[in-house]
């Protein structure tokens, strides 16, 4: 039989069987689950590692006051190849209320952290320099303490471009009024910076701390070390016999691992269900068609043509479901972060990228299950007595 005749007959068979519509929908849902599931797992895993690697806070270590001679230890680390910055507790942190932005929806809570130039990716204005009282803030700036309680809303983000190179009024420690000049705006997505955190030079932080908190004028009893990668902290600090240090920020890796494991296991279970379900449905349809197969054999069609007919029919079904599943999966990968992570100031940076490899593997799985299912069940019918098939 000619290929075009087989293809036409396969299309007619596909249209004739109403159960094929349900079959296409169910296969489409399973394919979507596989593509979106594994793509989510891959994107989450990549995001998690990138966050840990680039984040300022995750790569910062505090040398506690219990350590012997904090100052000399800190000074000796300044030229270490794995250390990006060394500073003391009076140069690290300030908090207050950015009164210019306070309204019924924003409480104005802001943190200001000391750092050095070239730690942030500046997109407007300039980087930190020797100018005292200059700060840089994120492009998703939102000074509000409620953002960590699930109330982050990207629509409330303040556009700082209009106040670039102007002063921002801040009430430090909710008590002392001061103003700091916004000299630059940085890309918060580059290193997953928090919306309520701005950065200033260590000199600026030190000057303000000494001015409004006299206790900082004493010799520092804590030091902070910014590493190029937190994994190098143990390597560098293990050389000191009497040192007590802790990471400034840590992530609950056990929870992260559980989330990734659940995503991974769920997708694997779906693949198993996909195989079982597809095999059972295909087998049922082919065995149900045994009488038609018997008639085709009596009419002179050889077994190869009959196999081709069913291969074509199920390839059509799988291609329709597969194409639809790709279109819907692409849309879901864009929608999921918006609906599920947009209220989190960090996870809002997450993008789920459909993996070409996963899509290709899903296609191969579809082809293999069609091939082996048709082959196995046609062989079963081939072994039957034609007369029994026709008259049963």
Task: Please provide a written account of the structure.
With 392 residues, the chain is α+β, with helices and mostly antiparallel strands. It contains eleven helices and eleven strands. The chain has two domains: 3-52 and 254-391, no CATH class; 56-248, no CATH class. It has a six-stranded mixed barrel. Strand 7 and strand 8 (176-186) form a beta hairpin. Helix 1 (3-16) crosses helix 9 (303-341). 31% of the residues are buried.
β-sheet strand percentage: 15-25%
Low-confidence stretches: none
Strand order of the largest sheet: 3-4-9-6-8-7
The largest β sheet comes out as: 6 strands, mixed, barrel
Using brief descriptors, characterize the structure shown.
single chain; 392 residues; alpha+beta; six-stranded mixed barrel; 16% strand; elongated
Q: Outline of this structure?
A:
This protein is α+β, with helices and mostly antiparallel strands and 392 residues long. It has helices at residues 3-16, 19-54, 70-77, 188-191, 202-212, 233-237, 253-288, 290-298, 303-341, 356-382, 386-391; strands at residues 60-63, 83-88, 93-98, 109-115, 122-125, 134-138, 167-172, 176-186, 197-201, 223-227, 245-247.
Write the layout of secondary structure elements.
Layout: H1 3-16, H2 19-54, E1 60-63, H3 70-77, E2 83-88, E3 93-98, E4 109-115, E5 122-125, E6 134-138, E7 167-172, E8 176-186, H4 188-191, E9 197-201, H5 202-212, E10 223-227, H6 233-237, E11 245-247, H7 253-288, H8 290-298, H9 303-341, H10 356-382, H11 386-391
Parallel strand pairs: 4-9, 6-8
Antiparallel strand pairs: 1-10, 1-11, 2-10, 3-4, 3-7, 5-8, 6-9, 7-8
């Amino acid at each position: 039989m000619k290929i075009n005749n087989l293809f036409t007959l396969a299309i007619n068979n596909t249209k004739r069987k109403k159960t094929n519509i349900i079959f296409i929908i169910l296969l489409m849902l399973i394919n979507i689950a596989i593509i979106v599931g594994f793509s989510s797992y891959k994107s989450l895993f990549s995001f998690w590692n990138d966050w840990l690697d680039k984040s300022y806070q995750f790569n910062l270590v505090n040398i506690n006051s219990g350590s012997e001679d904090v100052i000399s230890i800190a000074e000796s680390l300044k030229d270490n190849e794995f250390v990006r910055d060394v500073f003391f507790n009076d140069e690290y942190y300030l908090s207050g209320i950015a009164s210019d932005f306070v309204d019924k929806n924003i409480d104005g809570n802001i943190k200001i952290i000391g750092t050095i130039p070239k730690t942030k990716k500046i997109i407007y204005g300039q980087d930190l320099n020797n100018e005292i009282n200059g700060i840089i803030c994120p492009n998703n700036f939102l000074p509000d303490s409620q953002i960590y309680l699930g109330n982050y809303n990207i629509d409330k983000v303040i556009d700082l471009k209009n106040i670039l190179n102007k002063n921002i009024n801040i009430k430090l420690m909710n008590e002392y009024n001061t103003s700091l000049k916004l000299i630059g705006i940085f890309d918060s997505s580059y290193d997953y910076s928090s919306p309520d955190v701005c950065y200033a030079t260590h000199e600026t932080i030190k000057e303000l701390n000494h001015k409004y908190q006299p206790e900082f004028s004493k010799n520092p009893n804590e030091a902070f070390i910014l590493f190029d990668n937190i994994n190098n902290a143990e390597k560098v600090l293990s050389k000191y016999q009497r040192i007590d240090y802790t990471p400034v920020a840590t992530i609950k890796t056990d929870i992260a691992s559980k989330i990734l494991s659940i995503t991974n296991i769920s997708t694997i279970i779906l693949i198993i269900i996909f195989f079982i379900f597809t095999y059972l449905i295909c087998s049922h349809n082919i065995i149900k068609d045994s009488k038609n197969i018997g008639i085709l054999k009596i009419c002179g069609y050889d077994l190869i043509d009959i196999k081709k007919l069913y291969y074509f029919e199920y390839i059509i079904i799988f291609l329709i479901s597969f194409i639809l599943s790709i279109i819907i999966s692409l849309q879901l990968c864009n929608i999921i972060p918006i609906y599920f992570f947009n209220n989190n100031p960090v996870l809002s940076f997450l993008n789920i990228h459909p993996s070409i490899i996963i899509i290709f593997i899903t296609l191969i799985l579809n082809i293999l299950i069609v091939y082996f299912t048709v082959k196995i069940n046609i062989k079963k019918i081939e072994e039957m007595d034609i007369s029994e098939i026709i008259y049963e």
